[in-house]
Write a structure and sequence with these properties.
Blueprint: E1 16-19, H1 27-33, E2 39-44, H2 45-50, H3 53-61, E3 65-72, H4 78-90, E4 95-100, H5 102-117, E5 126-127, E6 137-141, E7 153-158, E8 163-168, E9 176-179, H6 189-208, H7 214-236, H8 241-261, H9 265-277, H10 281-296, H11 301-310, H12 320-337, H13 354-362, H14 377-387
Parallel strand pairs: 1-9, 2-3, 2-4, 4-6, 5-8, 6-9
Antiparallel strand pairs: 7-8
Amino acid sequence: MLYDASLNFIFWCPTKVVFGQNTALDVVMEVENLGCKRALIVTDRDLIKNTDIPERIKKALGKLSAGIFSDVEADSGVHIVNQGAKFGKEVGADCLVSVGGGSAIDTAKGIAILLKEGGKLQDYVGFQILTRPQTPHIVIPTTAGTGSEVTYIAVIKDHEEGRKLLFGDYHILPNVAILDPRMTEGLSPRLTAATGMDAMCHAIEAMHSLQREPIADGIALHAIRLIKEFLPKAVENGKDMLARGQMLIAANIAGGAFSNAQVAVVHALAHSVGARFKVHHGLANSILLPPCLRYNADVCGEVYLDVLSALGVNIEGIQPDQAGEVAADKIIEFTMKLGLPQRLRDVGVPEEGLRECSELALSDGAIIYNPKLISESTEVLQIYQQAW
């Protein structure tokens, strides 16, 4: 799809990306390159309990390790960030190494703010609040989905308020992302599929966002192609290092795409059911993507033709006004083969909770980038009802 010659845009992805098997064990070089002396590992309870990955990273850091903060949980909260920042100050940490999925990475982004700025995390909610670089941060993802290692976004739950807080600031972009396929080897088929669909959603939403741009489109399309080919292989055989590596790359470039172009209605709705009913973010995106494609179909025909082409569909004979419906059907077909649930009711969302989620979604920052204006919670409710 061509862009108007008068288009102005900025594409920015300053994070250094290191890729390759066993590159995570070279983390010490990246810490030294940043001029740091005390690296705090931020990871989650499951990883510390069920794998030796955090300990391997600690061993690789040697004398540069300031310890491990492992209290991160799914939908990590403000209180966990506060605990991590307190621990980081106690051990004299001057940089962070997050090891895990989106929750660990986003928690570390929050800790990076508090170690530098102090105060309450809630003081920094919103966009471009910070005025200087934050605590240096190296990311070692153990899932291939969020792309958070190259985004300026952190989503952290306020458990007292029952909502997710959005932090968007170029100063929290990680300094280094180490993509090591070995770090994702132990991920279960279900989580491999769910996190992979998170990346798929990032790529598609970057393309239909109001802030879409040609460079983001290019890498988003490549991410879709990679996910279509390699996610089923990674789900089928978790030890397939080629598939694991390609999925890490796909998640990374999808993250770069949406960090510049933004996400839209799918994420607004997914954030809300995640905050209210603890639905895994990737699963929520996977379920909500098809009805949202249908909702936007009348204004995104040309975009969705490009998406279909990237999905390997022969688009000859498909009219733009049909593309959204066809894309929705193809995504459902794809996720069914991955063994993922198809309805919100299947992941514990009660029908009576949809109205509350609709109100929450309407106030989510992502919804303003949707290509089709959404001004009433009843419109959101209709999408939820289709997904339920």
